[in-house]
Amino acid sequence: MIILVINSCRSSLKCSLYEMPDDRCLAECAVERIGEGKAALSFEGAGRSWEEPSSAETHAEALDALLRCLSSSEGGGLEDLGEIAAVGHRVVHGGEKISESLAVDQEVIEVIRDNSALAPLHNPPNLTGLQAASERLPGALQVAVFDTAFHASMPPRAYLYALPQELYTKYHVRRYGFHGTSHRYVAERAAEVLSMCREACNLITVHLGNGCSAAAVRGGRCVDTTMGLTPLEGLVMGTRCGDVDPALPFFLSENLGMSPKESYALLNRRSGIAGLSGVSNDMREVIAAAGTGNGWAERALDVFCYRVKKYIGAYWAVLGTVDGVVFTAGIGENSPEVRRRACEGLEPLGLCLDERRNLEAVGCEAVISTPDSRTAALVVPTDEALKIAMDTYEVYLRESGSTVTE
Ligand code: ADP
Hints:
Layout: E1 2-8, E2 12-19, E3 24-32, E4 40-45, E5 48-53, H1 59-70, E6 84-91, E7 102-103, H2 106-114, H3 123-136, E8 141-146, H4 156-159, H5 165-169, H6 180-193, E9 202-208, E10 212-218, E11 221-225, H7 248-256, H8 260-269, H9 272-277, H10 283-291, H11 295-319, E12 324-328, H12 329-334, H13 336-343, H14 355-360, E13 366-367, E14 376-379, H15 384-399
Bound molecules: adenosine-5'-diphosphate.
Adenosine-5'-diphosphate binds at residues 209-211, 238, 282-284, 287, 329-331, 334-335.
């Protein structure tokens, strides 16, 4: 059965085509820089890859171009778009009510729309992609997979801020968490690698990409995560500051005359390892600069890794016992240096990193702790598109009344 996965962002639309239940990715393609007058289409699949300029001015035109590409003989090779049985959409914010992936109906569309105020950069383009796909593939089941859904199991003590209660009851100000599809995917995979049943496995999952977050996962359910009302809270990121004193925007306003918009932009786009190092938002460049004696690059790397370690410690206390600490995403999968620094000093808690295994684990699944470490450390490459395809397949079976036969 063929499933299309769509990730529709502000200026890009990405598609992945899957053959299920084999979890086989047939093709990946994207249009980037939509509406900027210099859009580009890229394709990869069936041993071929290319890039070409695209005339797409809107997300709907981008989807048309990608569907043409997927159904051409030199591209995805689909004989008929009718072969696509279901489309899985990445949706960033599902608010409080959504705790699972759902077949899209009017109610789900309203939820995505209602939560646009909480994710103004993400939910509107997600919805645009969803509407374009519903029109072009009317025979396919549309499924929404929410970034926030995995975190819906957090208890009030983890998601409430200590603010006047009407900010929560009237305005829904609370911690939501993001990257949920990635945390869920790597947590499930890590339980398999550890040969444990999901319900008995306590994990700390650490997603370190351009955006960074950690989650405490008890028996397959998220009980806390570092991102909050928006993705700004928690770990240090490429250009986002993570945790700072909430009085900082007031300080910036009083002393530097910054407007709320300006301080929001500073905290989101000019901070993190980019702001602190003065080198780059790319961790590879920061590590390289630190290696050649750049003091601010070294400090940025140190602050980044210390924040990760601090949250691993906090979530250890939350969970009581921890079976595994799981590293994922660009930095987590590829940087032995960051993992070493983040795990340094955790030996008394029961986590002993194996130096050689850690160095060898670059971009691949691996256990990187010593054989006698009481808590395992693992690298699990994330695959959000695959997880969306898996969820979409499950929802499709549920909706069509079939059962999985394995
Ligand atoms: P996104 O959040 O955009 O999906 P990724 O998960 O691709 O981002 O992660 C991007 C980050 O991964 C960048 O900071 C990049 O420098 C970092 N990264 C990729 N490869 C390495 C590496 N070998 N060592 C350190 N960092 C790396």
